[in-house]
Structures are given as C-alpha cells and as structure tokens.
Amino acid sequence: MNTILGLTLICRLALGAQTISTIPETQIRLRPVYLSSQQQEARFKLVAPAAIAVGRSGNIYLFDDGNSRIVKLDARGRVIGEFGQPGSGPGAVRSGGLNDSIAVDDDENVYVSDPATPKILIFNSDGTFQRSFRLPFPVTSIAVNRKHEIFVTPNVSRPTELIFVFSETGRFLRRFGERLIKSPGSLARNMNLAVAAFDANNNLFVAFRSWPVIRKYSPDDKLVTENQFTIPAELIDESQRKNYSLEFFAKYPDSAFTPPIITHSISINPRGAGYLLLNAHSIVVFGPSGKVTRQFHFLAPRGRENVFIRLATGLSARARAYVLDTRSGEIYEASEL
Amino acid sequence: MFAKLISLLAVTALFAGCHVSGGSPSRELASDITRVKLNHPSGDKAPIPLGDRMTIVNLFDEFSTGCPTGNRFETMERLNSLRQAGTAIMLIFSDKHFSAQDLENFKAILPMADSLGRGDIEPVRPHLTDGKLLVVLDSKGRVIWQEKAHTSEQQVFSEISSLIYSASK
Predict the structure, then answer these.
(1) Among candidates B64, B101, B109 on the partner chain, residue whose Cβ is nearest the Cβ of A133
(2) How does residue B65 score in pLDDT terms, banded at 50, 70 and 90?
(3) Is the CATH number of domain A26-334 2.120.10.30?
(4) What is the CATH number of the domain that holds B150?
(5) Torsion of CA B143, B148, B149, B151, to 10 degrees
(6) pTM of the predicted model, to two decimals?
(7) Which residues of chain B have a CB within 8 Å of the CB of A155?
(8) Per DSSP, which regions of B32-115 are E strands?
(9) Nearest neighbour of A171 by CB, restricted to B70, B101, B106
(10) What is the pLDDT of residues B111-137, one digit of tens each?
C-alpha cells in the first residue's frame, strides 16, 4: 500500500515539475501536395480548413470548415470528391472553428464532428451520407477504433470524464478517463481540452491541448502510461512559469491564463510511432508506449506565414504523413516522419 | 371606452407580479406553449407537466454556435440545484431534429435525466431565439418569465434563481 502511495506521489511530483528547455530546430522535407496555386478555381479553394485524416487507401480527407464540406484528395493532391454542404438537413455540416473534427475508419467511412450543432455525421468514402447523431456538447477531437466505436473528447466546463464512446449507430456506450482539472470553470475547461488517436492495436493515445502529457489507454479503456514532453523554453515567459501548474489551475479554475503550448493534433503511424503537432511549428515524436523519443521545431516553406494546425498519418503502410496549413489551405507531405 | 379600460385592467392583472426583465411575456406564447406536446414511451403525447408552484421549461430546436449548448445545460443544472418542492424543470428537445436515441444518449450522459423529454415544439417555433427558448410558467401554465435574445447565461441564471427564491417564500 505504501509503495502504491509512494509511486502515486512520485508521479504527481513528476507531473508538477515540468521540463522546460530549448529544443532543436530541424529541417524536415515538406513536399508540396496541395498548394494555393492549385486552388485558383473556387471549387478547389479551401477556406480555413480545420482537420485532416488519411484513409487506408492513402486518400486524404479534409474538413474544409469555411465551405462546410469534406474534400477528398488522392495521395498526389488531386481533388477526387467533395461532400457535405452548409445549411440544414441530412449531411449538412456547419462552420464551427478549428476542431480536430474528422476521422476515417478501416473501411474508409468518414466521421465528422460538426462542432456547431453539435453532432457526428458519418459518410462512406464516396461521400454518401449514412447517418448522424446528436451530442449534448461540442467536441474537440474524434477517433474511431477498429470496432468502429467512436471516441470523442468533449468541450465542457462541468466536471465529467475525458472521453465518451458511441457505437457506429450512435448509441452512447461508455465514458472514461480523468480530466486534468476536476473543478468546473472556463480555465479548467480549456485545460481539459484533448485530442485523441488510435494506434493499429486499438490503443488510444490522448494529448491535452495545453499541458505537456501524453496518455495511453488500453483497448479496454485502462490508463496504461502517462508521459511528459518538454515545453520549449522560448514559448514560456517568467510570469507564465510561475502559474503554469495543475495546482494553480485547480485553485483558480475560472482565471484568465494563456497557456504556453497548444497541442493541435495527435496521429499514429502503422509502426506505432506517434506525432504531436505543437504551436504550428514543433513536433513531438513518441513511441508505442507513449514515451517521447524526439522533439524539434521544423522549418516551414514560408516560415512563420505557415500556420500548421494538423499533422495526420494513416494506419496503413500506404498512408503518408501530412501537415495542414489552415491559413493558406496548403497541404505538405512530411516524408521523413 | 369603459370596455377597453376593463380589458386593459384585466391584462394588467394577468401579468401582475411578473418578472419581465427577461422580456414581456406574450399571450400568444402562453397559448402556444400549451400546445407543445411531449412524446411518451407508450407513444402517447401529453402537454408539459406543471409543477405545483412553477415550471422552468427550456425548449431546444437546433443548437447554435452563437450560444453554446453546454452553457445552457450548465445553467439548467445550476437552476436544478436551487429547485424547491413544487418547482419542475423540463428540457424538451424537438422531435424533428432529435431522435429517440439522441434523447436516450442525453439521459445517459447529462445529469437531470428525469427532466429531459422529446416532443413536438412546432407551436412555439416563432418564439425561438437561436433555436431555443427558456420560459417559466406558473402553476396554471401562465408565462411569468421569458428569455429575451442575447441575454447572457449569467443573467438568465440570476433572474430565474430570483423567481425560485420568491416562490419559496
């Protein structure tokens, strides 16, 4: 019993003491896949694209938020389909902000979380609308496992679990996972925002939007590991360092605080390597256990003009890794990941 | 002239004691809300059940980005925690946009499962703001408070909690 208490204490201490350090700048090759020069015609133009997912076939699915549609590209960046539409009615998707709101399952069905209404819409890979179901909260991320169960991370201020699970027909199944901050409140709400992705073995990896931790949950929803990554020193100033602690957030769950990091997305490749995209220009690489193996800033083709908000890779050997720039609507292949 | 004066007095008397800061309760709304019907598992449809003292009813058609749904649910949960004996709370979702399964999911996920229902809210559609409407009815089903457009959740909570407090005296 004492050992368990001791381990818990060590874990808490480790989480309380964040690693803040400079991280290296690394050149990675970003191969253009879908550039603004390919988007001259209105029908090809992406407007504030919010999310990207890669299917088993290697096709790319984009949630083109500003146009309330899903755009399907092949691996070479050619538009091969579009579906969903603004307005109301079956298959309508409303614009709703930069949520990581698209996932693709093994059969290449496409799941979109409409953050505005909020609801989950399911299309097959050719864009035929299958069904939708409502949610009692907006969500920040959606992931689908090999059983076609749909996992969402809610955006709510009241205390609740971290992850909610629905069947492929939209029936609520279960919820699990502890939030970082259990108090209700607006800051607590922001600190509990999370993104999620599955590996090929149905393990779920979860990263918090503004706290440097990666959790791994087993296929039966048990927490397996919790690993930290480094907060890049240049992103955090002295005043932020002082209050950047779970204790502070729990004590002042409604306070105004701008966290130094934004974890935009999480993705796992078929070999079990995982990637977090941080603050538009940093990548955290982690192994199958969730342990961080590498962390670096990368140089973007247009420097700081590029605002990368998603890094997505698929679970099939054919799937490549892509980064999405929401500002320009451009997509690049990160061939070395 | 005398008849008009009597009518005016009658209307004034009807609304005496109303808390109107959230908007003027309308007679049309009072009439329309009686035509809202709740779906029962048996397939029957029934009017909104009234509390002995007051009933707080939120009708949802579509959720909207401008007014995050979560906030309204949280307001209703906070009001529920203040609820006194004789005060009922109902959250009614349009059966046009929410399926029976959606309602079952909501009951499994949200607190206040017993207060959630699904029904035909078409009669009050003209009164909805941002796809929803919050009203407070007295024991006879008369509207004593009505949500006004762009009212903050804090204001909604503050005004209705005052009504709950007054009714408990």
Answers:
(1) B101
(2) very low
(3) yes
(4) 3.40.30.10
(5) -130
(6) 0.88
(7) 70
(8) 37-39, 45-47, 54-60, 87-94
(9) B101
(10) 899 999 999 999 999 999 888 899 999
